[in-house]
UniProtKB/TrEMBL annotation:
The lineage of its organism: Bacteria, Bacillati, Bacillota, Bacilli, Bacillales. Keywords: Cell cycle, Cell division. The keyword Endoplasmic reticulum does not apply. SUPFAM superfamilies: Bet v1-like. It comes from Chryseomicrobium excrementi. It comes from the Bacteria. This is Cell division protein.
Length: 152
């Protein structure tokens, strides 16, 4: 099961970073490349513990839907979303935030299990893990840009 970890420093308060990371409209802005949009469940505003959202997006050239539920939340330090339905066998994405100097360290930990047994493991090695890492990193950089532009 691949585990992707990524940390980024954001020059913004922890509360701002926490709320931006769980804001549905911001999520759509930070995932332009995959054309993500919320189509069911919580479709606007800040997602809360126990709520779910169904995303429709184009990944690897295939239009697909994925439903994730917020299973843990400790405001403003962390929240976890887990796949309820979608293309993966399973996934868990923990978002952690800690104050550092005048800003915030945001850490993503994304663990997933591909479908299709050995074929899925081969896909991980060939392209999927790299694709998912790039997705996590690009989204984190977009969140950083949005958070830091709000400070001006």
């Amino acid at each position: 099961m691949p585990i992707i970890k990524y940390e980024i420093y954001i020059e913004a308060p922890i509360e701002v970073c926490f709320d931006l990371a769980r804001d549905i409209e911001v999520h759509m802005k930070t995932t332009n490349e995959t054309k993500e949009r919320a189509v069911a469940g919580r479709t606007t505003g800040l997602i809360e513990i126990g709520e779910s959202v169904t995303w429709e997006a184009v990944h690897l050239g295939v239009k697909q839907r994925l439903t994730a539920k917020i299973t843990e939340m400790e405001r403003p330090y962390s929240f976890t979303d887990e796949m309820v339905k979608g293309a993966f066998h399973s996934f868990s994405h923990t978002h952690e935030f800690r104050t550092s100097g005048t800003g915030t360290i945001m850490k993503d930990t994304f663990s997933y299990k591909s479908p299709l047994g050995l074929l899925g493991v081969a896909a991980d090695k060939l392209f999927l893990e790299k694709y998912m890492r790039n997705f996590i990193v690009n989204r984190a950089n977009e969140l950083k840009n949005i958070a830091e532009s709000q400070r001006m």
